[in-house]
Design goal:
By secondary structure, the protein is mainly alpha-helical. The chain contains 17 helices and three strands. 73% of the residues lie in helices and 4% in strands.
Amino acid sequence: MFKNLKQLFNKKNKDLRKRIYFTIAVLSIYVIGISIEVPVAGVKEAIENMTSNLGFLELLDIMGGGAFKNFSIFALGVSPYITASIVIQLLQMDIVPYFSELAKQGHTGYQKLNQITRYVGIAFGFLQGFAMSYMFIQDVTVFEHLKIALILTAGTAFLLWLGDQVTQKGIGNGISLLIMVGIIHSLPSMIKTAYDALVVGTGTDLLVGIASFALFLIIYILIIVGVIYIEGAERRIPIQYANKSTADLGKQTFMPIKINSAGVIPVIFASSLLSIFSTIAMFVKNEGFQNFVSNYLDYSKPVGFTLFIILIFGFAYFYTFVQMKPEQMAKNLQDNGGYIPGVRPGESTEKYFINVLSRLTVVGALFLSVIAGLPILVNVFTNLPSSVQLGGTGLLIVVGVAIETYKQLDSSLLSREYGEVKTSSRRRRR
């Protein structure tokens, strides 16, 4: 790891360093924009009161680095784009034939789908911005709501453009890095809040408070280590190819399948679905419905928490099979002349993939449930504020994006080193 990173300071990798500097500069612009607030009186207090009741809004604020609670120009972040990408991805499952055809066209189809996703994301951003303005801002005209919605939508559109610039001219996936930086930006504030709650505001013995805070940090670090381990864990399925030469028969080929193939999408789906009812309850002002939501759909309560875990498991299975497509995996393997030892090609291979994915998804969904449920349980059984997340979706996103960005950087350095070795060997032959 460190050996490859040292190559960054090599004179031959000057262009790669420029890409890293460009990425840092763009992410700095995003961090500055988080503190630029939309000038509306009283909105921050309204958001503060509602965020503790709506778990998805708390998640939105964490992913945006506090931009939501600040009601900044980046209050929506890139969440409308994430929603749009999930919707477009689901519509590719033979629901909309046009999208299904684009998905089969390779790179050209991917570019068109990406463009459509951005347009849909901006439309979602406008609707979400208008709903947010209507929910939090009172006693203003419709034109004022439209004005605020346009400002928030422009912020989201600008972030999507910044993400594109990072992807093309920087390092890593721009949108993912923006989300990661937003979460990291809120981390110092969260640590300070935890310190104030455990040490300053307890009123108990100072040593006990310091010990509690130290334990909090140790557990947080252990959770990070666990997330890194699970994110890198995979099941390697042995593959053999009928057209391999005799010299290659001794080399074993594997098909890696991640334990957590669904990523954080199941948690986002589950929290979004539960928060819909909380949002409706705030609009309808019906006491009976509000009590039902509070007692049975609030995941800080036993029934709501159980439903939250069940939804995570359900969405984990759904999204894993949508992403991996066992039938397509078996077909591609057969078309390339490959097979799994001891398993017949075709339908038997498809069933084998289904069984493997089913077993792996149990472990992956259990892991997601622990990570997503831990901060809820900590907030219920301790005096820590809801803004203190011990684990949670944000941590999953940061670790996942950091690993993928490092792999891309490491791969780029290795390919350059390999290219230099090949060039020098050719020169020797001459």
